[in-house]
Each structure stands twice: as C-alpha cells, then as structure tokens.
Amino acid sequence: MRLFKRIPGIDSPGRSDFPVLAPGRKSNSLPIRFAGLAGWRPEVKAWHVVFAVCLFALSVGVAEAQTRVDYGESVFTTLWRWMPLILKGFGVNLLISVVAMTIGTIAGMMLGLAQVSQLKGVRAISYVITQFFRNSPWLVLLFFMTLTLPFEVRIGGTSYIIPDWIKATIGFSLPVMANISEVVRGAVQSIPFGQWEAAESLAFTRRQMMWRIILPQCFKRMLPPWMNWYAILALATPVCFIMGVEESVAFAKQAIDAEDGRPELIGPFYFFVMTLFFIYIYPIGRATVWLEKKFAIKT
Amino acid sequence: MSVISTWFRDLYETTGWNFVYMYEAFEQERLIDGMISTLQLSAACLVLSILIGIVGAWLQDSPFKLLRWIVQGYISFFRNTPPMVQLMFFYFGLGPYTPAVDMGGWQEPIIGSVGWAIISLSFFAGAFNVEIFRSGVEAVPDSTQEAAASLGFTRWQSYVYVVFPLALRVSLPALVNNIVNLVKTTTQAFVIAVPEVLYVSAQMWSDNVNVLEMMITLFAFFMTVVWLIVIAMKRWERSLAIPGYGTQG
Questions:
Q1: Structural domain count, chain A
Q2: What are A152's strand-pairing partners?
Q3: pTM for this prediction
Q4: CB B2: neighbour CB atoms within 10 A?
Q5: A24 belongs to a structural domain
Q6: What's the ipTM?
Q7: Burial class (CB within 10 angstroms; exposed 0-12, middle 13-18, buried 19+) of A147
Q8: B88 touches chain A (CB under 8 A)
Q9: CA closest to B70 among chain A residues
C-alpha cells in the first residue's frame, strides 16, 4: 500500500510548465540540512578537563590519606585492577539507554501524534497515558515492571527466561515514551496554524499535511529536547542496579565488597562511575545547548 | 472508620486485593510515616535547592572569574552525573569521614542517611535551578538593572529587589518542572535506606505480598502530589503576573 501520493517537485521531478512552480534547488527543499551538524564543536574548554581531573585526584588523595598501611596497595592501583569490570558494566548502562530510547521514541512518537489526533477519544486516552507515565517516578515504574512482568515467556513450547535488564529497559522506556509524547505534541502545536491552512488550501490530505508539512518542521524543534531526554535517561540507568541488573554501579559495589573492609575505596569507586557518566553525557549536553541556540528563533 | 476497614478486609478475603494499610493500624502508620517523610524530604530539598539556585545565579554574574568557574563547574558536575550515584557517593563515600557523636555506647555520624539525602538532592536540584534562574535573569533587560544602579542600588540590592523578582516570573514554568522532577527523584533515596514512601512500600509488599496494590497506592500518591504542586504553582504564577510583562500580556 502506498502511504502517500507523490508530490511533484518534492519527491519526484517537477512536471509543471509554469516557471513559477518549477522545482527549487534540491538542497533547499530538504527539511533539515544535516551538514550543519558537522560544524559542531563540543566547546570543552581546557579547564573543564582540569577541573574533573583535580576533583578526581582530590577524592583519591583524601582516600589515600586514610589508607591503612598494612594493605600496601594504593587506592588507585585497586581501582585500576577493577576498571575493566566497571567499564563492562558501563557498557550495559549504554546498551539499556540506547534500547530504551529507541523503544521510547517510537512509542512516544505514536502517542504524541495520538495526542494531536482529530478524534476526541484518542486524544483523551493518549493524554491520560502520557500524564500517568510522565508524573510517576522512574524508580516506581522500574519496580512495577520488574515485579509484574512474567519471569519467563513461552514461545512455541520452549520457555525463555526474561533477563532483568530487558525488564528494566522496558521500565525505562515508559517514562521516556511519555516525555517524548509531550515533546511531539508541543512541537506540532508550536507550528503556526497558517502552515496547516496553507497546506489545506493546496489540497493536501490530513496525512500528507502531517508527514510532508508539519513533521519535517517539527523535527528541528524536537531534536534538542529529544537529546536532553536521552541524557536524562542515560543518567537514570544506574537505578536498575536496585533490581539486580549487573551494570556499572552494581559492579562497583561488588568490587568494594570484594576488597573487604577498605572504606576508603567507596568514594573513589563511585566517583569513577560518575566520571564515566560525565565524560559520556557532558558532550551531549553541550551539543543540546548548541543546537538550541542554533535553532532558536531570533527575536 | 471501622466500616471502611471492614470493607477493605472483606475485599481482601473475597477478591484477594490486599490494601493492607486500610485495615491494619501498624501498616497504616508505616505508610503514612513514609509519605510524610517523602513530603518532608521534598520540602527541605525544595527550599535548599531554590536558595542554591538564587545564590548561584547571582554568582554567575559575579565580576570574579574564579567564582563563575566554580559555579559553572558545580552545575556541570551535578547535571551530568547520575543522581543515584551522587547519593551513594555522598552517603557511603563521604559519610564515614564526617565526625561522629557518641550516642552513649555507640558512635553515630552527625549526618545520617536523611541528612545526606537532603544535601545530595538539594545540590542536584540546585544545579538545575541555577540555570533556570540564570535564564530568567538574562531575560531581564540590562536597562532595568542600569536604572536600578543609577538609583544607587548595590549589585546585590538590585538583584534582590529588581532583577530577581522579574526573573522569577520568567523562570516559574521551568521551576515547576524541576520541582516535580525533584519530588520524583526523592524516591532514589531508597538506595541509601531513607524511609521514604517507596522504601516503606517495598517493605510492605515484601511483608504482605501485595505488589500491585502498593504500586497503585504509590502511583496515586505521586499523581496527587504532582497535581497539587502544579495547581499551586499555576495559581502562584497567576497571582504574580504583572500586566504587560511576560507571556500573559
């Protein structure tokens, strides 16, 4: 089934004889010029790095001062030994965040479009769903999912155990879905009404208006908040360690427990986890701010 | 009262829906204590984080480069690291190094888990508040501040009496979002065993095996709290509105 009628001049060669309707240059008709993204610099100034390193050194140093002599091993050596394990855990954090973001974005797009539907019932139901998941704490949703999803599923006679991290991912994708839904709704409603009227006067169908006129303009507005929500999601992923998912915090905790009776390790180990997240999230945050400025309407 | 508790006991015996706190005084007290401590934790963090936000936004305008750097570093750090790990870092990492007081036989640190939760969550929400107030301050025209300066206001006076009251009106919508977010983040104090509502509920569902019922209760609780905050803030926003200033026109 064809979703759209081809529109001459946009996705098929222009067919008009009138010079005024001749297709414009292709690069101008694209909704977003991705080439613009190539110009981005993370704007990480030298002092940002210096600051992070100083803080880290300070925390290790303070811990070092408390080290009891009989262990012989410095905090940093211990941390170095456990680093591969914690990094592996951090990989799990990233995996969960990417999968949850993908699910959340797709579901959130649908929910968001349902929120601007012309059917009153659809609008009302999607509004309630959005508000429910938006206003519930992430940790509660996570508990809800891990405790109520079945332990295993049966597909064709064989049963598969659902691993904890998948349950956690589903738990994370729900609040993301609700927030992306709000982002989509806000973006669609921020498009001047004249755009709808202009499209209508050119005899576009509702679906064509949405996909060809409104959403391409929304995309630009949705990108910064979408990235912001990804950052928030990634920062929330360590919470799933409470559910027994083996990620960075869980491994850090296990490492501390394994190095029995060395309380001076706790600070640096958690600080190391924070540093990992900082290194990953900070550029995303800067890019979001940069995009927001770039896309801002000049007043 | 007894009618309600009998009804809920009947509900449990006939359908299996176990809202245990409706008919058992002990559980009821436990849940209400949890709810109160969530509200107290939220309120304490709210006040502290707004103070941090106000002072931080003022410092960001400071003529001293070092001060601006420190504030910027603070914001970057707390905004870009997981709040739960912040809690764990503060409580488990820094907790042991705080002075302990003698409680007659055993040593108790001066700052307990609740104290650390307040400190950590306030710093977390405060980092966002600095940025929120900062954008509000930026929205106030320079000429307003210059007018205040020409009337002999000091920098702090013009901030407190002129710039901030105007900036507050601009930043209120973003502030509401952050407050709601803060209330939801207090659940993460679960990880350092603060007896807030989620922690108490988790104890209750492991004692009574009524996960779903407690979940419904939690959802209802947070919905109500968030809803009340949003209503109250909307009302405040309307009462603060200056005709001709801001979006209300």
A1: 1
A2: A161
A3: 0.81
A4: 7
A5: no
A6: 0.84
A7: middle
A8: yes
A9: A51
Contact residues for A79 (Cβ-Cβ < 8 A; gap 6+): A60, A265, A268, A269, A272
d(CA B111, CA B194): 12
Residue A51: give its domain's CATH number. Answer: 1.10.3720.10
Contacts of B133 (CB under 8 A, 6+ apart): B53, B54, B56, B57, B164, B167, B168, B171
- Best mutation site among B35, B74, B80 for testing chain A: the one with the most A CBs within 10 Å? B80
The H or E element that residue A194 is part of is helix A193-201
CB A169 within 8 A of CB A96: yes
pLDDT in tens, B231-246: 999 999 888 888 766 5
Asked if residue A10 is part of any domain, the answer here is no
| In a domain? residue A15 | no
Domain span at A82? 45-294
**pLDDT band at residue A220 using 50, 70 and 90 as cut-offs:** confident
Domain B28-96+109-240 class, CATH top level:
mainly alpha
Within its chain, how far is the Cα of A166 from the centroid?
17
Taking the C-alpha atoms of residue B161 and residue B58, their distance in angstroms, rounded to an integer, is: 13
Interface test mutation site (partner A, options B65, B90, B179, B184, max chain A beta carbons within 10 A): B184
